[in-house]
Write a structure and sequence with these properties.
It catalyses: 2-oxosuccinamate + H2O = oxaloacetate + NH4(+); 2-oxoglutaramate + H2O = 2-oxoglutarate + NH4(+). InterPro entries: C-N_Hydrolase, C-N_Hydrolase_sf, Nit1/2_C-N_Hydrolase. It is an enzyme of class 3 (hydrolase). The chain contains seven helices and 15 strands. The protein is α/β, with parallel strands linked by helices. It has one domain: Carbon-nitrogen hydrolase (Nitrilase/N-carbamoyl-D-aminoacid amidohydrolase). The strands form three sheets. Strands 1, 2, 3, 4, 5, 6 and 15 form a seven-stranded mixed β-sheet that branches. A six-stranded mixed β-sheet has the order 9-10-11-12-13-14, covered by helices on one side. A hairpin with a 5-residue loop joins strand 13 and strand 14. Helix 1 packs parallel to helix 3.
């Protein structure tokens, strides 16, 4: 099936972001995409100073638009970190998924908050404003089961392993790596998660805006179960298309059967919630 990743140029105007995002979703659907993904923080600039201002409840304005366009196009739509979600006085970094009938299929709250300090390069602390999610998020399609993470979640190999154990064949990480971590680890982490678990990994980033307070790396990417990069964007706004070949996935798992060769008598990773 065809997967489309929308690397959106995000402005400070929420209504413009929503309008452009929905237009690109329609374009991707018209070109045959069955599953379409938007980037992390697609409806607002990325930064702790913006989260409260742009926060919405779910359902709300942004998720209603996503539901409508998913139904209109009869596709599966992953809403990136569509919004900073407000719930019970707390803010979450939240990704929503809508089915071809417009129904909400999954809601993933970012599990691992991005609190880092690389001296002289970047310091960022999501926990100043955001609360962490506490659950895994998967959804079924007629094609395969899909697991969700958001950006920093990709660094935690155990999370991807759990998704693989639960039958996911595609992991999607809306993310906004920066100009320090992006060139160093963006592709490396995706290839690692794909090879370790013999599944497809897709990441979808905002387009790069050199004038923004937080500059995203871009380079939305798809990696196959062999660890090969099969689709990759540059830094500009674009839509990346690729075919997810589940027959190839099955062949790779048969050729190198690591999933059945794990020594569960010696080690294991388990889901606690």
């Amino acid at each position: 099936f065809c997967l489309a990743l929308i690397q959106l140029h995000v402005s400070a105007v929420k209504s413009d972001n929503l309008k452009r995002a929905c237009g690109l979703v329609r374009e991707a659907s018209a070109k045959g995409a069955k599953l379409v993904a938007l980037p992390e923080c697609f409806n607002s600039p990325y930064g702790t100073q913006y989260f409260k201002e742009y926060a919405e409840k779910i359902p709300g304005e942004s998720t209603q638009k996503l539901s409508e366009v998913a139904k209109e196009c009869s596709i599966y739509l992953i809403g990136g970190r569509s919004i900073p979600e407000e719930d019970g006085g707390k803010l979450y970094n939240t990704c929503t998924v809508f089915g071809p009938d417009g129904a909400l299929l999954a809601k993933h709250r970012k599990v691992h908050l991005f609190d880092i300090n690389v001296p002289g390069k970047i310091q960022f602390k999501e926990s100043e404003t955001l609360s962490p999610g506490n659950s895994f998020s998967m959804f079924d399609t007629p094609y395969c089961k899909v697991g969700l993470g958001i950006c920093y979640d990709m660094r935690f190999a155990e999370m991807a392993q759990i998704y693989g154990q639960k039958g996911c064949q595609l992991l999607i990480y809306p993310g906004a790596f920066n100009m320090t971590t992006g060139p160093a680890h963006w592709e490396l982490l995706q290839r690692g998660r794909a090879v370790d678990n013999q599944l497809y990994v897709a990441t979808v980033s905002p387009a790069r805006d050199e004038k923004a307070s937080y500059v995203a790396w871009g380079h939305s990417t798809v990696v196959n179960p062999w660890g090969e990069v099969i689709a990759k964007a540059g830094a500009e706004e674009t839509v990346v298309y690729t075919d997810i070949d589940l027959k190839k996935l099955a062949e790779i798992r048969q050729q190198i059967p690591i999933l059945s060769q794990k020594r569960c008598d010696l080690y294991g990773v388990e889901m606690k919630k």
